[in-house]
Amino acid sequence: MEDIGAEKWDRRLNEDIFGPISLPVDDVIQRTHEQLIDCAKYPDSEALDADVRQLLSTALAQSDAYAQRMTRPGINYATKLPRVRCELRRRTKSLEESEAEQCALKTDRSSSGAVSSCDNVNGLTNTSGYLQ
Fold first, then answer.
1. Does residue 61 or residue 120 have the better pLDDT?
2. With bands split at pLDDT 50, 70 and 90, how would you rate the model's confidence at 132?
3. Which DSSP letter does residue 47 get?
4. Cα angle, residue 22 at apex, residues 20 and 24 outer, rounded to 5°
5. 23-49: per-residue pLDDT in tens?
6. Degrees to nearest 5, angle at CA 107 with 84 and 120
7. In the 3-class helix/strand/coil scheme, how is the chain assigned residue by residue?
8. What are the boundaries of the region Disordered (predicted)?
9. Most CB atoms within 10 A, among 3, 44, 52, 75?
10. What is the reported pLDDT for 26?
11. With the CA atoms of 7, 12, 18 and 21 taken in that order, what torsion angle do they form, in degrees rounded to the nearest 10?
């Protein structure tokens, strides 16, 4: 094994320990492709050829999980997603402070005396009960 080079050392060691790797031949791969595409002729796994079934055995064993029911009987699930209220968005103090600063800048710029939409920011946040 000394004369095979460092790049092939792992492959040769693996072959010495476990034996040569048996890869499916191109004919089996081609037949697997053809049989998986032709669903009318091969409706289930028993209709597949033996070597094709053996090649797909691990995938077929794991495919049973897709047919299982995801919900459990007797458990009530929500009929729709929860409603998002706009005042719940202002949960952190830093977000509230940054919005207050933006509103202050808008009111300073406008200086027309009209009531801005930012006047109610603190009222919404304090009534929701998320900040102390």
1. 61
2. very low
3. G
4. 160
5. 667 888 899 999 999 989 999 889 999
6. 35
7. CCCCCHHHHHHHHHHHHHCCCCCCCHHHHHHHHHHHHCCCCCCCHHHCCHHHHHHCHHHHHHCHHHHCCCCCCCCCCCCCCCCCCHHHHCCCHHHHHHHHHHHHHHHHHHCCCCCCCCCCHHHHHHHHCCCC
8. 97-118
9. 52
10. 81
11. 80
Is residue 97 over pLDDT 70?
yes
Amino acid (one-letter) located at 67: A
Other C-beta atoms closer than 10 Å to the C-beta of 24 total 13
Question: Which two structure tokens, joined as six digits, stand for 21?
Answer: 């790797």
Q: What is the pTM (predicted TM-score) of this model?
A: 0.36
Residue keyed to tokens 């499916």: 24
Cα 56 from Cα 25, distance rounded (Å):
14
Mean pLDDT across the chain: 77
Cα separations in angstroms, 3 against 9, 14, 62? 9, 16, 43
Residue (of 70, 122, 132) closest to 99 by Cα position: 122
